[in-house]
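Support reply, case 0932

Customer input (verbatim):
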Amino acid sequence: MFARYAPRNDDLFLFNFNRSTGELSNFQQIVIEEEEEWVGGVAFSPNSRFLYVSSYDFIYQFDTWADDIAASRITVAEYEYQGQFIEENFWGMQLGPDCQLYIFCNSCDVIHVIHNPDEPGLACNFEQAAVQLPWPIFRSQPHFPNYRLGPVGNEGLPCSPVVSVQETVLPTASMEVFPNPADRYIVLTSPVASDTWLLYDSMGRLLKQARLQAATPRQIDVSDLSAGLYFWKLLGGGECGKLVKG
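Our regenerated output:
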């Protein structure tokens, strides 16, 4: 299905969507009547059954498998104001790669989360201010298109309930290239074992190479290079970097 929420003009538009042809069909308009209704967001649950709409003060859940989708509406959250200087409210929402729904608010320093969006009603487990941000944000989060749908006919979930986060520690560079940006020459110094230094242009073509001895500076003439950005690496040491030629 395909959903579009424009609270100030059209309310909720809902279509059947053909991924192969891009055709929209079976149009439905669902009116959401509120005293304040001018911002919000929309997102599907991971299993595609439940449609969530954040509409200023409220978050609604619709069952798209129901015979009457509009009549299936359940209020799963009401905004609890925290007394910020600028009025807060629910804003855009988006399904995360961990199968949770994330809802931004206007001008505050938190993100709200629906932890179990595949569950009906209050079992969806909404938590206001579930994620504390280091600084306030304004308006909404960037929108990331969902490219995790899988092949037609074998879609599966567009997310993974368990997301592993690993910290990658990059090795400290021991190679020194000076000066950078360069003019006529550079000096290479490697305090580790002997290695071969290679210099490439932006097309990946090898332009220069030099054999380095540990802790022994090596001067390289670069006056013949055009101004621009170049890339270097140590053949055996795995280090790499950039060189700017002025």
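We compared this against your earlier run and they match. Two observations from our side: Residues 176-245 form a domain with the Immunoglobulin-like fold (CATH 2.60.40.3080). Residues 189 and 217 are 5 Å apart (CA to CA). Please reopen the case if you see a mismatch on your end.
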